[in-house]
Amino acid sequence: MDAHGPGSSPDHVIADRGWRRWFGLAFLALALIGLWQVPWLGWLVYPFRVFGTFVHELSHGLAAIATGGDFVRFAVSPDLSGVAHSAGGLRMIVASAGYIGSAVFGGALLVLHARLLSSRTLLFGLGVVFGLLCLLFVRNLFGVAAALAITFALGAAAMKLNLAMRDLLVDVLALQLILDGYDSLFTVFALSRQGGVRSDAETMADLTWLPATWWALIWMLVSTAILLAALRLAVRR
Question: Domain limits of the chain?
Answer without folding.
Answer: 12-235
